[in-house]
Amino acid sequence: MVRLLLPLLLASVSLGAGCGARAARPASVVNAFGDALDDARYDDAYALLSEQYRRRVPFSEFRESVARNPEEVRELVGLLRHVDEADEVEASVPLPDGDELQLVLVDGRWRIVGNVVDFYDQSSPRAALRSFVRAMERRRYDVVMRFVPAADREGMSPERMQEAWEGDSREEIERLLADLRGSLDEPIEVIGDRATMSYGDGAAVQFVREDGVWRIEDPD
To answer: Could you identify which of 13, 84, 139, 190 might form a hypothetical disulfide with 195, taking C-beta atoms 3.0 to 4.6 angstroms apart as the criterion?
Structure first.
């Protein structure tokens, strides 16, 4: 993901309708969420997220995630301004990078579901792969370290990773990332805490679930 992912009016202003008026369309809510993020109106952006999300992620954590990833926020805002419309009780709004935002209609108002500002999601093998590619493309080696299984971390650090992957092996790494970027939607076989995605000419990505998140054992 280059998931991802992950922000109108003041939180007190109704986006939906009362008294039988029609609820705001999903894409309008997505655009409003992007505008709120872009204007640093994080409380307004947070108010547009679903109640389930807000119960799970406190505002302080949401704001910290946004502040910690300014480049990712700028990219997300750009994506949110180019979405296609959807109009269902539950809606999926496609983003230009292939990801989707899920929305649900609650009491006449659309709310965004999921952790849209979790730019490096590891909740599933697919999310982990998208996040790994996104982190590598941004040279966020501190983030890449999160995807390394515990058994492989000895002697590794963001600095050593940068030295290795931007040195003599850089062209090889760029080819690998291009191949992975073109294979983000390939089928992934999940068996318990392990998963495999075959791609390209006999290559495969191996995943392992540790501490409730998915990590990448071998990207080629």
So the answer is: 190
Helix (H) or strand (E) holding 121: none
3-state secondary structure of 12: coil
Close Cβ partners of 213 (under 8 Å, ≥ 6 residues apart): 122, 123, 128, 146
Task: Report pTM.
Answer: 0.55
> Would 128 be classed as within a structural domain?
no
Element spanning 39, H or E: none
Task: Provide the domain limits for residue 39.
Answer: 26-113
- Name the CA radius of gyration of the chain, rounded: 19
Name the DSSP class of 19: T
User: Under a CB-based contact definition with an 8 Å cutoff, are residues 168 and 162 in contact?
Assistant: no
Residue 3 lies in a domain: no
Q: What is the pLDDT of residues 91-120, one digit of tens each?
A: 667 766 666 677 777 766 777 766 566 678
Looking up residue 38, the CATH number of its domain turns out to be 3.10.450
Give tens-digit pLDDT for 155-207.
Answer: 888 898 888 788 877 888 888 888 888 888 899 999 999 999 998 888 899 99
Please provide the DSSP assignment of 163-208 as one string.
HHHTTTTHHHHHHHHHHHHTTTTS--EEETTEEEEEETTTEEEEEE
Same domain assignment for residues 66 and 109: yes
- Determine contact, residues 82/99, Cβ cutoff 8 Å: no
